[in-house]
Amino acid sequence: MNKLYDIGLIGIAVMGENLALNIESKGFSIVVSSRKQDTVDTFLNGRAKGKNFAGTTDIKTLVSMLKKPRKVMLMIKAGNPVDQVIEQLIPLLDEGDVIIDGGNSLYSDTTRRTKYLESKGLLYIGTGVSGGEEGALIGPSIMPGGNKKAWPIVKPILQAIAAKVGDGQVCCDWVGEDGAGHFVKMVHNGIEYGDIQLITETYHMLKELLRLSNDEMSDIFSNWNETELDSYLIEITADILAYKEKDGSHLIDKILDTAGQKGTGKWTVNAALDEGIPLTLIGESVFSRFLSALKDERIEASKHYLKESKAFDEDKDSFINDLKQALYAAKILSYTQGFQLMKASANAYDWHLNYGGIALMWRGGCIIRSIFLDKIKQAFDKNPDLNNLLLDSYFKETMNRMIPSLRKVISKAVLYGIPVPAMSAALSYFDGYTTDRLPANLLQAQRDYFGAHTYERVDKDRGEFFHTNWTGKGGNTTSTTYNK
Fold first, then answer.
1. Helix 214-224 and helix 316-349: axis angle, to 10°?
2. pLDDT per residue over 215-232, tens digit each?
3. What's the whole-model pTM score?
4. How far apart are CA 205 and CA 312, in angstroms?
5. Residue 8 burial by CB count (10 A; 0-12/13-18/19+): exposed, middle or buried?
6. Distance in angstroms (rounded) separating the CA atoms of residues 230 and 224
7. Angle of helix 393-416 relative to helix 373-382, nearest 10 degrees?
8. Which residues are catalytic?
9. 165: three-class secondary structure by DSSP
10. Is 191 exposed, middle or buried (0-12, 13-18, 19+ CB in 10 A)?
11. Among 270, 204, 264, 191, which residue's Cα sits nearest to residue 231?
12. For 69, which DSSP code?
């Protein structure tokens, strides 16, 4: 009898290859597949040589080599390629077999596929996998969602390969129904955009305002990594700033200042627009990447709008401390918005998300891993129904202490002409959220004036709408009201 394997994996590019090696290293046998025979042969004769692997370019052969219930993981490009492979797999699988999509699929696609495959008698999981190449190999953060009947079947493998933190807590657990797993991964990626943008704005202030050297900045980020800012992204920032080429020059100064992206940040902002959540910081982070891509236009514009280069004449050490606190305060506000989005979407899609558990899943393995996530887990452990992180005791105390530094940093950035869109968005959100009366009364009056969209009154019950004939020339017919 031919040997049967524990799991199949289709797609052995960077993430797929490393994830396959991780799975095998935890004692599971695995069949890998790629469209090109050369890719399969190179892997089997290279990093997989002598290990518990088999390989093929034929999906039918891969399925025939798997133990029942069969488990097939897809590590391929999101979108139509996933649907195409699913269609190839459906006639080859039996009822109760499981397909796992480990790519960055859009959560609505995962919801659709979960329902579609259930109609075929098959179980589908859409799982976010974060950690990059290194994380995939040694332990990523894994966020599975979809058909919950599949979870007991794949749980031993996924939890075995996931990152571990603290006393062995696993950075992988069931997230929720339908597209919940990929949604949480999408929000993770959006928060990653925000974290990166905040760090780059801080770097820009250190470089252009304080005029520090790369080595000095590297030392600052390294020191900050020993504080409440301890995180993977702060750690690698210190490494990047210190990195030198063979001639002794710093590589960072030779990298073109145009940023790329794969689209998950835009998806996060689109979801926020759909749910009416002010995801302002992440939105500005996405737009900042767009702005960076206009390199030629920025060069031309800089010739027409020369900026005065003034020397910073205050105490540098004190301002560096303000930068540290501003960065932490803005980080808190970014995560606050991200968790608000998850709560709103859970209500909209009837998902049952464990927010403390999500913070734990992000605590290790993933790109945004940081000690700070412990504070979020503790907040939701204390109050699972917490509406906003700013209402938790730790975050209230921290923000009251650090907001003055955020104000000072943004003020200096404005005065010296240094763009800080994410930090500015963070402070505006904080000021708006903590203001009991905003000028939206005038906004709504304007809407009623030109469009008869009605308004509510502070001296009447909520839900009762009014219209005024502001000019005496309009009628009493009203348009639609508004979504609260």
1. 60
2. 999 999 999 999 999 999
3. 0.93
4. 11
5. buried
6. 7
7. 140
8. 185, 192
9. strand
10. buried
11. 191
12. S
